[in-house]
Amino acid sequence: MADITGVVRLTANSKEYRMFFGTTALAALCAKYGKNFLAELEGAIEAGGAGLDFGIVVDIYREALQRFHVDDLVADPYLPDDLFVQNADGMSQMMAAAFPDADGGQGNAQKVRKTRKPSTSPRGSRNTSARG
Per the confidence metrics, is the pTM higher than 0.85? Predict the structure, then answer.
């Protein structure tokens, strides 16, 4: 079965996890850290990690586990740490999937293909030539 848009698969301790950082996760983190937490996180990352609040990082992983792996999270409260250190690009993958237009990409959304060319004839005109 295909994943819903926004799901990223990460591996930790030889097990694969489906991470989903959606609007519920965003709402929880906005309530905890304020509406600008993503901008602050991005600024800290761009500054080479200076001032990075690792509480936000851990909570992003924790929230991303909630939809599909809450039991694993309860059983192992250090799972967010393991996912973070064992997936160097995990955070950027989750952000690209959560905000597909933010980096110009589509996350894991499927591309839509056009099946026909748009008409080049003026609106309202009809082709009256005889067909034989």
Answer: no
